[in-house]
Design brief:
The protein is of the alpha+beta class and about 120 residues long. It has one domain: Alpha-Beta Plaits (2-Layer Sandwich), CATH 3.30.70. The protein has a 4-stranded antiparallel β-sheet with strand order 2-3-1-6, with helices on one face.
């Protein structure tokens, strides 16, 4: 007969020893390297020919329809990129699912979760 305590320890060890998934899929077609959802979205493939202020204003108008936008971080060095911070992860997730690959000033938006926590937050 097998000792029950020994079995419990074995199964606990198996649970601890299992590799934890670093990434998961939220929707079909996501890459294997997709980051976990965060408050901040990383947007790239922006049209660099559009004036910085106009881009920022229009990003705010579009993304604020999906939740409260706390910050939009753009830098002249990051020509085709922006970081948008939402109040909640759910709002960021909703915006990502809704706007990914949508046309914006003649180019499709590429949206990912930011790998740097709260990038550009003030």
């Amino acid at each position: 007969m097998v000792n029950r305590n020994l079995l419990q320890v074995y199964f606990q060890y198996c649970e601890v020893a299992k590799p934890k998934p670093k990434h998961f899929r939220l929707e079909q077609g996501m890459s294997k390297q997709e980051s976990l959802p965060t408050h901040t979205l990383y947007i790239h493939n922006l049209n660099w020919k559009i004036e910085h202020g106009k881009l920022r204003e229009n990003l705010y108008l579009i993304f604020s329809t999906y939740g409260e936008v706390l910050n939009i971080y753009m830098n002249h060095k990051l020509r085709e990129q922006a970081f948008i911070t939402f109040k909640s992860v759910d709002e960021a997730n909703f915006a990502k699912i809704s706007l990914n690959k949508e046309m914006f000033f003649g180019k499709p938006l590429h949206i990912e979760y930011s790998k740097i926590k709260n990038e550009g937050a003030t």
